Amino acid sequence: MTDHNHKNKGSPVNTPLLLATAVICGLSAHANAATFAYISSPGDGLISQYSLNEDNGALNLVSQVAAGDQVNPMALSPDGKTLYAALRVKPFQVQAFNIDPTTGRLSAKAKAPLAESMAYLATDRTGRYLLAASYGADTLSVQPVDKAEPILTYKTGLHAHSLRTDPSNRFAYAGNLGTDQVLQYRFDADTGALSPIGSGYVSVPANTGPRHLAFSADGKFLYVVGEMSGTVIAFAIDHNSGALTRIGVANGIPERLNLAPGQVRDARNNDLKDDPTPRIWAADLRLSPDGKLLFMSERTSSSVSAFAVNTGTGELCFLDNYPVEEKQPRNIAFSPNGKWLLVTGEKSQQVGTYAVNAGGGLNRVGEAASGKGALWIEVLSTSAH
Hints:
It holds the Pfam family Lactonase. 0% of the residues lie in helices and 49% in strands. It contains no helices and 29 strands. A hairpin with a 6-residue loop joins strand 7 and strand 8 (106-113).
């Protein structure tokens, strides 16, 4: 039974991230449009900044900053001025960085405690709250970034793996991998509090392992990737209540991959070492900017699966699965113009850029050196003024 009651965790956050009071210069009148990618690498504690040429897909390493041991999930503020990065060693903390509006370079801004070791980080749609999910502690958390207030924590079933608010910022959803549930909440944008919608969850088929989430831009549909099933489940979101209704499922694992479904991977064997079973190990899920394509990464086969999205009905159709050169691809991310897909590999020395064709096909066009164990990707586009 999932416990949806919350409690205040520990002492108040003594070091607020002070997003609201940060003084940051705006873009200069002569600034050129630019696209930057930020990639965390827990193996060396770095965040690498890349420039992405949206005309040809060229990727270049610009700079690297030391973020801290086991830097892992990250989140961009909606205004593009702050990058948050969670450190997964005690004392669990989030590091906030200012983003230079012209160069995209990062500078350390503030640190604050986190409730637990967090596998997932996001902000709400206003940027006032930092949302997090702890896989190991079965916990969700919400904390303000500009006030010294207690962190709100919510116990979940086994292995919470994501938490995001919908485009309207009225509802929040979480992938609960170990319970085969997608948790559904109302989100109070004034206090950050979560309250369950109905029973507080919708169930998915056994051994799916709900992991990451993606929303349609209009807020009508939610997509959830199954880590152990390699499927993507589509839900309709009730406009008034936020309640989820399952409308379809698409399998992203073709038979030719010879992967076993529904078998959890022990966290102690997170790198496939000596694993006798080639099992499905899906990871990330990203929707294209135009909403017509959905991509899923699969680590065991080092591949990416593409789905077509019916933007009217929300239904999915599997297109194909494409091998990528990045070994054990954890995160993927679209460029803002939708022409390129960035891919990191936990066991790769490079980050790759792939051209995306209209049918979802991928063609590798660029690469750049990665940090050790490259993992989380956040992409930022700055506009000319």
